[in-house]
């Protein structure tokens, strides 16, 4: 039975205790913690090193990610990969995931283009147990929150990307103190007017360099 928008039990009951990343990924396909599982093609969990030093957390999978089952494989993902490399970060030391694991979209009719719709706070809260479990297993030194949705999932409530981006924030987690940093989502760069796009991209690279410099 589909989960209604007003009755989201959250993912906790589907998260196997003490599971490693691969087991979490396998279990996530059965999650019914919110209603987004039903229209989505599949769950999109994570990719990258299970012992990564840096975790990159985005908002939710997009259309291409939903079809392929892998995060950050669309235009925004390719831009992120370029920025990560330019910031001097070895991709082998990174882990990429999203705050919400299913694609939320609107569609005027079956077969028509699926339009991205941002997840709401309820979706973020419902999916948070997956994010907490995977970050506990990966245990990265630095967590980069890409965009406002990821920031809502992991950073203090008063954090604003426009005001606090690029700042290092030390927080207590289940694995001790960790360093967090919030910045823009690469999709925001793609939506930026062309004349301002280079500056927006340079800002993302600068923030990623700050994150890389925080590694011990």
Explained architecture:
The protein has 216 residues and is of the alpha/beta class. It has a single domain (12-213), classed as Uracil-DNA glycosylase-like domain (Uracil-DNA Glycosylase, subunit E, 3-Layer(aba) Sandwich). The chain contains 8 helices and 8 strands. The strands form 2 sheets. It has a 6-stranded mixed β-sheet, sandwiched between helices. A two-stranded antiparallel sheet has the order 4-5. Strand 7 (168-173) and strand 8 form a beta hairpin. Helix 4 packs across helix 5 (148-154).
Keywords:
Uracil-DNA Glycosylase, subunit E; single chain; globular; two-stranded antiparallel sheet; alpha/beta
Straight-line distance between termini? 48 Å
Strand order of the largest sheet: 1-3-2-6-8-7
Query: What is the ordering of alpha helices and beta strands?
Result: HEEHHEEEHEHHEEHH
Looking at this structure, what is the CATH superfamily?
A: Uracil-DNA glycosylase-like domain
Total number of β-strand segments?
A: 8
CATH fold type? Uracil-DNA Glycosylase, subunit E
Please identify, by name, the CATH architecture. Answer: 3-Layer(aba) Sandwich
Mean pLDDT: 95
Tell me the domain tally.
Answer: 1
Number of helices: 8
Uncertain residue segments: none
Identify the overall geometry.
Answer: globular
């Amino acid at each position: 039975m589909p989960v209604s928008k007003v009755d989201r039990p959250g993912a906790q009951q589907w998260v196997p205790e003490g599971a490693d990343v691969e087991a979490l990924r396998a279990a996530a396909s059965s999650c019914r913690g919110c209603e987004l599982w039903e229209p989505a093609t599949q769950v999109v969990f994570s990719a990258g090193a299970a012992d990564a030093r840096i975790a990159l957390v985005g908002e939710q999978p997009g259309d291409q990610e939903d079809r392929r089952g892998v995060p950050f494989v669309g235009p925004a993902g390719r831009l992120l990969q370029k920025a990560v490399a330019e910031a001097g970060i070895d991709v082998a030391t990174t882990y990429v995931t999203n705050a919400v694991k299913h694609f939320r979209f609107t569609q005027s009719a079956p077969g028509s283009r699926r339009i991205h719709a941002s997840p709401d706070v309820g979706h973020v809260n419902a999916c948070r147990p997956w994010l907490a479990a995977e970050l506990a297993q990966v245990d990265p030194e630095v967590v980069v929150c890409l965009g406002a949705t990821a920031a809502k999932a992991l950073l203090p409530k008063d954090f604003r990307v426009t005001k606090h981006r690029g700042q290092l924030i030390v927080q207590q987690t289940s694995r001790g103190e960790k360093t967090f940093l919030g910045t823009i989502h690469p999709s925001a760069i793609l939506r930026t007017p062309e004349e301002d796009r280079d500056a927006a991209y340079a800002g993302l690279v600068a923030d990623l360099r700050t994150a890389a410099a925080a590694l011990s």
